[in-house]
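Complex record, two chains
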Amino acid sequence: MNKDSLLITGIGNSRNVSRYCFGKGSITQLSEILNSRRSSSENWAVFLIDEYFDRHSEPLGVLPVESTDRVIHIRTDVEPSTQFIDSLVCDISVSHKMLPVAVIGIGGGITLDVAKATSNLLTNGGRAEEYQGWDLVKRPGIYKIGIPTISGTGAEATRTCVITNEKTGVKLGMNSDHTVFDQLILDPDLTASVPRNQYFFTGMDAWIHCVEALSGSYRNPVGDAFSAQTITLCRKVFSDNEMMSEESREKLMVASYLGGCAIATTYVGVVHPFSAGLSVVLGLHHCVANCITMMAMELYYPDEHREFMGFVENQDVPIPEGVCSQLSDSQFEALYQATIIHEKPLTNALGEQYRDVLDRSRVRQIFEKM
Amino acid sequence: MNKDSLLITGIGNSRNVSRYCFGKGSITQLSEILNSRRSSSENWAVFLIDEYFDRHSEPLGVLPVESTDRVIHIRTDVEPSTQFIDSLVCDISVSHKMLPVAVIGIGGGITLDVAKATSNLLTNGGRAEEYQGWDLVKRPGIYKIGIPTISGTGAEATRTCVITNEKTGVKLGMNSDHTVFDQLILDPDLTASVPRNQYFFTGMDAWIHCVEALSGSYRNPVGDAFSAQTITLCRKVFSDNEMMSEESREKLMVASYLGGCAIATTYVGVVHPFSAGLSVVLGLHHCVANCITMMAMELYYPDEHREFMGFVENQDVPIPEGVCSQLSDSQFEALYQATIIHEKPLTNALGEQYRDVLDRSRVRQIFEKM
């Protein structure tokens, strides 16, 4: 297949998040935003909140929850499955006669993705697996409000929500303009209580995506501009002695949003396919898997690898080592298959003959470094 | 008045353009975008096109104009008045039984602003002057498509459209979320035929706005990020030997869009008030007035002034000189009044005591340099 035809699929029409509030304490805006949609007392809203806040609710303050609303805490130890989304939607649907006026996701990438998927399913009907793919969602979902509590994944700005079908093993998003949030509240106060390591791993997700995009052969000026600014902001944050100072957390929250905006018009490169291998075969979470992979990327991204090692040293964050040291041949084969399947990113990074460059033994060598 | 209370008016909720296409030849997407809104043959659209293209239609190619559509060319020698908008809206309203399905603005800042205002008036009724101000537009306008043919004003991304009431002299925008475009088509091919000087003056509008924003005391991290990336892109374009190469025109189109996104959350500084004086008293167009002002801004923006002079020299663009050399005392007084009235930008740049720093004689001295 020709590289251009693989990577350039026509001029895309990018959908933006409709509205965003940014600033310390902006979560207090939620009340006004919700009230403008509650036209009668029968209206109700669904709050999907990262389970962390079930035990640590202080950062969220007093949420504007009415007696008819539902508050559901979302598990984040496992990534969301289509089966989980289906049961969540069923639970919400049967609890009231009417559909809710809003779905509010408060949390990290997992919770935001669950909120997007739930909102779409509530109005479109059917099961989550029927919408995994591109542009399969036919109707606008319930009004979606996203409130990220950690920065880096960009889930707040993208048109996808990644879910895994546990039966078939298919891990694929609902890529649709309808998946985009109607409203974001970007409040940097909410990231103050994130554990340092997790803050680093997740922040690096934005940086790594943009590094891959700007090193690729498929480029466009809008994506490049968003990526460049994301990298500039991440560099400031992770070169700083205080990556979690108020100023740094503000910058990283902006970087995450802009990095998410970049995703619409860019492709990743070598890091994400290897990282996906680690997630699929070894069950490692996306952001830490990215960092583990980045440690072994000296060959493909020498300058970026050096900068990354500087961030790690500067922030004194331990990246897990030896995760592939005890694997069997069949596990290495599974890692190879789970990596090499990512045709578009690998073509973007290495050209259409990427399978020649990245053969079994090379892929295994790279994993053996991790 | 306290500076904070003047400049910080609560956490804003920023509205994004809903969708954008970017790329060479993307104007051909207009057909598909319009077709998705034409549900029956009775539906019709209004094309508002910069009068320049009446005589030079090649860059636009074959527009998807149906027999029931209206094509109206917009004068750009004078800035739009509320009276002009009213008569345009009346003309469009009486021409069909139904409202149009889309208003398409194709041109520079003036044409885009006319399209925004027309779209709002068609659904909201009344006269343009009734909507000059903040959040006075109550209903969504007709679906708005913006296709800029010159880069720099940021009109494609903002929530305002600047119009002047000729009777009262009030020059004020319809600042409203409903003023934001639903769809942009950003096609850098369309700026290839812009005269060099105009290309420079208009491109500088984006750069100057962001320079002012980043030098001000009122700041926020989202606005700063958009401004910084706009400046980076403008710097590349105007430091390059080929400011109108394909690559440079692409970059400047992105800079204009991002610069427009910055406007939502930033304030300008000293340049725009002086430039407004030149426009109001001497009738100079906004973008050239900005450049004339920038030539006299060594005191307030020494580094930026030096960089600007470098751009001017590098691109060999003549900035009009001596525009204030023959003015009367009463004209200087009018200039002073038209400058000093801009309380928010001047407070942002110079502090709340700005009238002490910028007294009559200082303002006159600065104008005398122009």
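Note: The interface with chain B takes residues 11-23, 25-26, 29, 33, 177, 183, 186, 220-222, 224-226, 228-229, 232-233, 250-251, 253-255, 257-258, 265 of chain A (CB under 8 Å).
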